User: Which sequence fits this backbone?
């Protein structure tokens, strides 16, 4: 025994050996199997208090069972989202589902009566959120003359009900969503550890698609694999390339002192892993040139192009100075002095920005490569300056204008 991962009622659960899936027999959701990856998706996509989502998935699971021949229809990472999105049926359709269920219990005993089980158990079959609504639906079916109550707690289908049922069968049962994703067969997506730019680190990710090309030249071999990855946490997509070259393989020792071979694999992500994210105020910078250069600065930082990043910072300083005070004589030194005279920066900040400009010059003219740490400080300084000069200055003006004047 265990709990149904969909509706959380106690259910019969099995974990067949040799497969990453579970088989569930639930009073509400019926018989189904669910893959390990779909199970882990449920944690984020199906909050236990979201009764509607639970009802939708429970009903879609029942429906999947009734529309396939599979003994254990499968919920997997491919069809789960479609099943969750599938709306609950209309009242009319719920009524039909009640009749279909009752008829299935009666088999060919058309005048017989079916004992109503716990109304909660019928939510999945009928497609309602809870047992109270099942109760409501049964009352409506009775007042419409489709069913009759038979003591104790049984229902039978009226002649009118049978007529309605044959009409329902003619128009076919509630169709299962026929999107390609829903029809995709039981393919279990692998979960691997990979970098996610949004979560800023290594996360569990599904391998949604992959292809590998291999080659060799005598004893030397190589392979090139591309994988489309989707972060299990935030759904962000990325592509990972793994290039293996046998000549890069290295012999090493594991923690028990045994010799092991570490395969020579180079890993590249597209887009490149974010080393430094753009500041949140980036979009509020009005000047397009400034924004473009900033964009390229972070692209360079994230690609490890430190010389270009350092030059980019100098360009930003140049452009920012131009926007604030135009183009005074005397190159960078003249510009920084004019910024100070104009009250845009303090004497202390002038010294700091001079250091940044010098590093940029050294990179531009002598190919100077700042260390990662130093480059981090350089970027901190320029971010600070731009934030104050182009974002906070405008904000301060707004505050001044909108603050009610003191009553005289
Ligand atoms: Zn269930
Ligand atoms: Zn993520």
Assistant:
């Amino acid at each position: 025994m265990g709990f149904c991962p969909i509706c959380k009622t106690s259910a019969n659960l099995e974990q067949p050996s040799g497969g990453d899936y579970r088989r569930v027999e639930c009073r509400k959701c019926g018989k189904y199997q669910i893959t390990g990856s779909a199970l882990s998706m449920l944690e984020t996509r199906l909050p236990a208090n979201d009764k509607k989502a639970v009802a939708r998935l429970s009903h879609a699971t029942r429906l999947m069972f009734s529309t396939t021949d599979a003994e254990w229809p499968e919920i997997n990472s491919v069809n789960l989202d479609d099943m969750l999105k599938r709306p609950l049926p209309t009242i009319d359709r719920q009524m039909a589902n009640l009749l279909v269920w009752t008829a299935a219990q009666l088999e060919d005993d058309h005048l017989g009566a079916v004992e109503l089980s716990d109304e909660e158990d019928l939510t999945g079959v009928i497609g309602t959120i809870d047992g109270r609504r099942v109760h409501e639906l049964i009352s409506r079916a009775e007042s419409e003359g489709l069913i009759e109550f038979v003591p104790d707690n049984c229902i039978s289908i009226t002649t009118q009900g049978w007529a309605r049922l044959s009409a329902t069968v003619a128009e076919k049962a509630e169709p299962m969503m026929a999107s390609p994703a829903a029809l995709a067969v039981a393919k279990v997506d692998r979960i691997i550890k990979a970098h996610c730019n949004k979560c800023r680190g290594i996360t569990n990710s599904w391998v949604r698609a992959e292809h590998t090309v291999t080659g060799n030249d005598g004893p030397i071999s190589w392979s090139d694999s591309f994988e489309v990855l989707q972060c299990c946490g935030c759904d962000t997509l990325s592509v990972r390339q793994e290039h293996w070259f046998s000549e890069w393989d290295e012999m090493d020792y594991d923690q028990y002192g045994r010799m092991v071979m570490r395969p020579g694999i180079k890993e590249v992500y597209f887009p490149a892993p974010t080393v430094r994210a753009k500041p949140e105020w980036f979009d509020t910078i009005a000047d397009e040139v400034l924004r473009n250069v900033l964009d390229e600065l972070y692209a360079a930082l994230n690609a490890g192009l430190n010389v270009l990043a350092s030059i980019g910072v100098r360009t930003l300083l140049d452009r920012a100075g131009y926007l604030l005070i135009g183009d005074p004589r005397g190159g960078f030194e003249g510009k920084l002095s004019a910024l100070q005279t104009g009250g845009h920066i303090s004497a202390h900040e002038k010294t700091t920005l001079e250091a940044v400009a010098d590093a940029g010059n050294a990179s531009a003219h002598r190919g100077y490569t700042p260390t990662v740490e130093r480059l981090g400080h350089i970027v901190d300084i320029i971010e600070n300056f731009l934030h104050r000069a182009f974002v906070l200055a405008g904000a301060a003006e707004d505050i001044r204008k909108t603050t009610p004047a003191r009553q005289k």
Q: What stands out?
A: Residues 147 and 157 are 4 Å apart (CA to CA). The pocket of zinc ion (ligand 1) is lined by residues 4, 6-7, 9, 11, 26, 28-29, 58 (CB under 6 Å). Residues 176-188 have pLDDT under 50 and may be disordered.
